[in-house]
Amino acid sequence: MLDKSIMPMLGFGLMRLPEKDGAIDQERVNQMVDVYLGHGYNYFDTAYVYHSGTSEVALRHALTERYPRDSFMVADKLPAWSMTCAEDRDRIFSEQLERTGLDYFDFYLLHSVEEGANYDTYEKYDCFSWAKQKVAEGKIKHFGFSFHGSPELLVKVLDKHPEVEFVQIQLNYADWDNPVVHSGELYRILSERDLPIIVMEPVKGGKLANLEPELGALLHTVRPDASDASWALRFAGSLPGVCTILSGMSEPDQMLDNLRTFDQFEPLTEEDRDVLGEVVRRMLDMPIVPCTACRYCVDGCPMGIMIPDVLSALNSQRLYPNDNRPKSFYKNLVKRGSGQASACIACGQCEGVCPQHLPIIELLKEAAEKLEEEA
Would you tell me how many other CB atoms lie within 10 Å of the CB of residue 208? Predict the structure, then answer.
């Protein structure tokens, strides 16, 4: 049984680590880890596929080789899309232990449970029972899954697998009533079962950390000195049952801002909730593609299209149609090696792994039309 009291409120997500010359900047990661641990936090979240497999190695260099094992907790994940047979469970798990330099994982998750191939693969290869055996062997201390599916599937999985100790969900104020993400409804289901909740995407891939100026101005009228990100983190942290909130901190300044939020945490007031409600109402009127830049779509793209970057340029073009900067950004992106949006062959690989269930093929067509006129 997972003891919620051992969980720190702020978790360090290792999906968006700082980079230098196209690789993880290990020195900067080490410095950020030192600061994070120095403030009394100790939960690190990585995955087999993060940074094309190098996130786990960066964790080894920053943690395993530099700190006592009992001073930190590590969460890792088994990816359905990297398995083609039952033997892959142990192959991947052993590789993860080797990459991280660990003998066991404090938390282990089935990665991105959702309708379709992912959940079907986990059931096909009996991954829930396999993980339960790993717990019995002491190789996993606590077992759960990250979730990107429907409320109906969540209930089905929890009913079928009562051995699950916690669930990780995408939760933020912008997605609370989102009919695709279902943050609010998933939260209610887990709360009713008293299952510990780990929050991912609390700032929606950075979208809520850098709001459009008119939206940020609304927040600043209430708390002039508070960052946009702090509002999103406080929203998640104010919810009962939330144990740890993961933040994919890629810059020291982001970490320091997050530490300021959690070192002296203040739950949302009614006034805070009212202004967030107005922000969401106005946000829904903006034509934004809700990509969180998880980059799951990039590695498997046969045409080498840097899809999240293209969609970022498309968002800017939608919001500011008379601004030439989105086209310039896109042109430079192609020069740096990205395939053009028009090169998409509609294979669907990207849509199959997108946690946000975006119609990427159609969005790339739109990007080609709007960004390649002068590119």
Answer: 24
Label residue 237 by pLDDT band (50, 70, 90).
very high
The amino acid at residue 9 is M
CB of 309 closer than 8 Å to CB of 363: no
Per-residue tokens: 286: 């903006």
Backbone angles phi, psi at 103, to 5 degrees: -95, -20
User: Residue 291 and residue 357: Cα distance in Å, rounded?
Assistant: 9
- Write down the residue that tokens 């993880």 correspond to: 24
User: Residue 321's pLDDT is what?
Assistant: 72
Q: pLDDT band for 375, please (50, 70, 90 cuts).
A: very low
* Cβ neighbourhood burial of 248 (10 Å; 0-12, 13-18, 19+): buried
Token pair recorded at residue 108: 């282990």
pTM: 0.83
The CATH fold of domain 4-283: TIM Barrel (3.20.20)
Containing H/E element for 23?
strand 23-24
Rounded to the nearest angstrom, the gap between the alpha carbon of residue 73 and the centroid of all alpha carbons in its chain is 18
Encoded amino acid at 119, one letter:
Y
Q: How many residues does the chain have?
A: 375
**DSSP string of 240-297?**
TTEEEEEE---SHHHHHHHHHHHHT--PPPHHHHHHHHHHHHHHTTS---------TT
Instruction: Tell me the domain boundaries of the chain.
Output: 4-283, 307-371
Q: How far, CA to CA in Å, does 248 sit from each of 149, 296, 339?
A: 21, 15, 26
